[in-house]
Amino acid sequence: MMFGLLASRGLGVIRQSIFNALFGTGIEANAYYAASRLPDTLFNLIAGGALTHAFLPVFLSYEKNKGELAAWRLTSLVFNILFVAITILILIGEFLAPTFVNTILVPGYSAAEKSLTTDLTRIMLLQPLILGLGTLVTGVLNSRRQFLLPALSIAVYNVGIILGLVVTLAMPHIGIYGPTYGVLLAAVLQVGVQIPPLLKQGVHYIFIWDIHHPGLREVIRLLGPNTLGVGVAYAALIVETTYTSYLPDQASLAALHNAFMLQGLPVALISQAVGQAILPDLTAQAAAKRYFRMRQTTLKIMGASIALLVPAAIVLALTGKPLIHLLFQHGAFDAHSSQLTYLALIGYAIALPGSAAGDLITRGFFALKDAQTPLYTNIFALLSRWGLILLLLNVLPGDLVILSIPLALACSATAEAVLLLAILLWRLHLHVKMDQGVKRLQRRRQYLKNLP
């Protein structure tokens, strides 16, 4: 998993270097980054990580208790419902895109920037349908402990965007529309590379439409709070974009995007890879009521990961400036763009431990089929984040005002991670009394005690 995600981030850096050389931190770059907000939100609301976390425990339970055929019937049903739901949302999004962009997403931009952002948004809105259906494929492969190809598929996604950038290099008049259509090609490639291993798992598609299916209801029951939690997280990103559109430096949104991408490397290697890999094991331990072992696994994984995250944040802050200069300062990406990106990166480096740790700890709640607790903590983090942004916007002077976005994330994410860990350990402490292994040990001790 780490190897696959490392390959993805490496290609991501190449993709971003080409993109920055072509578009820098100008109008087209800002419109491109802003346009991705609505498609990303729709995808993650219905599918994305939320669906994986809701679907995987139910799929494993059906496969274990009701057999493989019942598990494939459930998968087919979820696929069909997902296709219809995402299609409806995309149609609504296409219709409401101008209003959303002009009044909510980037109200501080000029009319030309708003128009371009709307056009790019409408093109990218096809992406959630492709990736959403591919999420089920990823979930099934992860349930079979197949992690390499799903991780490499994310790397292949970057290939699609790079091909779009190559088209722009060959035909400059296409401009920002090259990488925009490349996003759609990327989604097709990401899903397509996972089809062969899925077929090897003996997948059986069945046309079924039963909204009263108990397995579907269980998935929806878990997906509801997950969806609200993801909605809260993406609402924060949209609000950040709104605030950023009013910042005096027009390069701010592009600088924040580049800094966040660099911060994403240690997050992917430590949080996403480890989190996705341990979710099936934590789920299996919870299903078998082996809560004592689950608590041990949680403490070991969290402790080791956090021990890596703090040094990673320090290294990122210290090496960020020369790294940005080496990777990005070419073509349209000038010295001012580099300096602004480095300022944002310092803030995101501070946010790294809390953000990644919170994401890891949330997997323990998903394994317990508890999506409500992360939802409540997400709401807490969102409200505190908004308040901190407003405070920092009025406190930080000059160019430092860009730090208001990442520093607000740092404070809210760290507080949420501490809260999540405390609640999870408390929950597992209570569940240990029901642990099957602990009960056997107690019975053995009682038996030995009663021996003459």
Automatic annotation (TrEMBL):
The main location class comes to: membrane
Where is the protein localized? Cell membrane
Q: Read off the InterPro entries from this record.
A: Lipid_II_flippase_MurJ/MviN, MurJ
UniProt GO MF annotations: lipid-linked peptidoglycan transporter activity
Keywords from UniProt, A to Z, are: Cell membrane, Cell shape, Membrane, Peptidoglycan synthesis, Transmembrane, Transmembrane helix
The residue range of the signal peptide is: none
Q: Please give one Pfam family short name.
A: MurJ
What's a single GO CC term here?
A: plasma membrane
Keyword Membrane (UniProt): yes
| Entry's transmembrane regions | 42-62, 74-100, 120-141, 148-170, 176-199, 219-239, 259-279, 299-320, 340-362, 374-396, 402-426
Q: Name one GO biological process term.
A: regulation of cell shape
What topology in the membrane does the UniProt record assign? Answer: Multi-pass membrane protein
**Xref: NCBIfam families:** murJ_mviN
In Swiss-Prot or TrEMBL terms, this protein is called Virulence factor MviN
- What's the source species' lineage? Bacteria, Bacillati, Chloroflexota, Ktedonobacteria, Ktedonobacterales
